[in-house]
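FAQ

Q: What does a record look like?
A: Structure on top, sequence underneath. For example:
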């Protein structure tokens, strides 16, 4: 519902909505931080691609939408494998470090 209003907070996208809710009077700020996750479950970039292709909802949806276009499927296959190659740390098997942002909120009061 981009650009609409819900619960008194402007909704312009998921990030904006989240920030609006977190600034509300019902929650108070809590510490946040960044961390990294080592991903070393895959022997090669194709395994990484195949995992997301068959198990990660948003990726599955894209593959379903482009299923009738072999060129687009091949391009997405290569892009996902390339993502793994680009972030490979160069260990004997595929090993990547992925950074994430941890945000928590506590109920006010």
């Amino acid at each position: 519902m981009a650009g609409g209003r819900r619960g008194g907070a402007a909704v312009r996208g998921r990030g904006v909505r989240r920030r609006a809710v977190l600034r509300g009077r019902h929650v108070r700020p809590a510490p946040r931080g960044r961390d990294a996750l080592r991903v070393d479950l895959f022997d090669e970039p194709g395994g990484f691609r195949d995992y997301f292709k068959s198990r990660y909802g948003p990726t599955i949806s894209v593959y379903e939408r482009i299923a009738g276009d072999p060129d687009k499927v091949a391009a997405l296959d290569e892009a996902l494998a390339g993502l793994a190659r680009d972030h490979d740390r160069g260990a004997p098997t595929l090993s990547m470090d992925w950074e994430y942002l941890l945000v928590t909120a506590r109920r006010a009061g």
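Q: Is there anything notable about this one?
A: Residues 33 and 102 are 5 Å apart (CA to CA).
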